[in-house]
Amino acid sequence: MSLISIKINEAGYDPGEAKIHHLDFSIHKGELIGLIGANGAGKSTTIKSILGHIPFLEGEILFKEGIATAYLPERPVFYDELTLQEHINFIAAVEELSVEVLNNRVTPLLKKFQLTNHIHELPGTYSKGMQQKAMFILALMIKPDLLIIDEPFMGLDPIATKIVLEMIMEERNRGVGILMCTHVLDTAEKVCDQFVLIDHGQQLAYGTLEDFRGTCSLPGASLFDCYHHLIADKGHE
Ligand SMILES: Nc1ncnc2c1ncn2[C@@H]1O[C@H](COP(=O)(O)OP(=O)(O)OP(=O)(O)O)[C@@H](O)[C@H]1O
Predict the structure, then answer these.
(1) Does residue 63 lie in a domain region?
(2) What does pTM read for this prediction?
(3) 1, 63, 106, 140: which one has the fewest Cβ atoms less than 10 Å from its Cβ?
(4) 219-233: per-residue pLDDT in tens?
(5) How far is the CA of 74 from the centre of ligand 1 (A)?
């Protein structure tokens, strides 16, 4: 059984103005799905639809009962007045995590992301990469079953990109289902199990890179080449 099944017929911000017209895919345990598409194609709107942030939705988003879902937005969001420690304490209180569980989960994450010495600072004053890492810590604290990540590599240097990528792979290996929206196709090609290609709010393709190669009749082609082939086929490039 999938962790989440997504069937969207129409979704949008205003009635009668659908930005998403057809989407149908699911995410299983330990599966990393790459959500790819051009600027304005509808990736963030898809994520917002899944999270219930879109006012108009016709379709069905089915979550497996009892799963914990974490969302990492494209732009990190923090409370201006709270230090990282206070953010951690706040989430721990809301999620009713014991001090022991908290320490077991958070201490290694802080160490891994080299934020231990910055825990009493305001995350709003961190660099972009540090903010992204802090968001990961806050998201992973709850040990999610499903992780939804919008553009995780934006603004990260190669070292931070590697750390974030390793973190994503570790979570996947732990059995977490992950939906990752990204423009970084060479990275997506290396790590994602399947891809959903969105174009003008429609699901143009859903499958593995091998499926895409078959559809395009391009054996051995890169995700980048398949992407352009599939989009050009629709006359949208
Ligand atoms: N808050 C909003 N209100 C109305 N329309 C919106 C809103 N946010 C996005 N849109 C529109 O919805 C469509 C899809 O945008 P979306 O942000 O989902 O694209 P995207 O694939 O995430 O693009 P990018 O790669 O640039 O982030 C676009 O036509 C965009 O103008």
Answers:
(1) no
(2) 0.91
(3) 1
(4) 999 999 999 999 987
(5) 13
